[in-house]
Amino acid sequence: MFPSLTRPPVKVVVPQTAAVPLCANCASLVTGPFCAQCGQRNIRRLVSVRRMMWDVLDDQLSVNSALPRTISGLLLRPGFLTREYVAGRIVRYIAPFRLYLVTSLLFFLVLALYADPRRLGQDAERGMSPAGDSTAASRTVVKQGRFLDIGPMRDTANVPRVLRPLARRLGEQEKRINSMPRAEAIKALVSGIERNAPKTVFLLLPLVAIFLKLLYYRRNRLYVEHFVFALHIHSFAYVVFTALLLTSGGPYSVLLLLWLVGYVFWAMKRVYGQGFRKTGTKYLILGGAYLFALTIGMMLTVLVTTLTV
User: Fold this and answer.
1) Quick one: which of 141, 191, 200, 266 is 20 to 30 A from 84 by CA?
2) Which sequence ranges are marked TM in the entry (predicted)?
3) CA distance 35 to 37
């Protein structure tokens, strides 16, 4: 017999490939740290508590990279974060709105510790009793005279008709608050102001952006750019005022206030790119308008607190 002229079959060996990771949430192919379909992070979820807390901080504040860059840019480089945001370099820093929320939360937490309504009420009780003796009788004593005085609003006949319902409500609140012990009235009013003040300042943000839009209307800037600038300026102001509370009016208070004043001016100059004279003029106009709006806002805050306490 002749040998077979056909070649023996060749055994093909297929190389083993690495397993392609799939998203545990939507089963899509994952080629990076996040799923391109649903956005879930591509990490093992059953981790230690320490790792879990670190992931939370990284998700909220980007502590691994964005937080140091954001802090240095906010504190040491006026206007830098706004310019980076406008230029499209966003991910490498903490988002402006999140930065504002974190700094405002920090400030009002520290303020609540330094202006604790219960502690202020206890101080009022000790001040009302002879030699600081806080007895049961002294705790029920009401301050002589009026603790709350609404003045001409008390007589509804002397106010415009449209304001009479408000005047009657204020009169009722005046009687109720004046009938309370001083300590209880102080605690109620301070707690209400601390609760309403963050909302007032937050509502000023779009107003500041409107002021900036009017001052720089020839620069053809979008409103959102002015709003981002207002967020960054307020974030820095919250950091400065938090430091003022922590230093308790020490020798660094003047330096901190001067730092804030100079910071806002230099931030306006860098972001909007105008000379010292124009920037100084608009800086004074913006500052005056903001102080006026803030004063009105705080008066409304006190009014709302009085009506709702």
Assistant:
1) 200
2) 97-115, 197-215, 227-246, 252-272, 284-307
3) 5
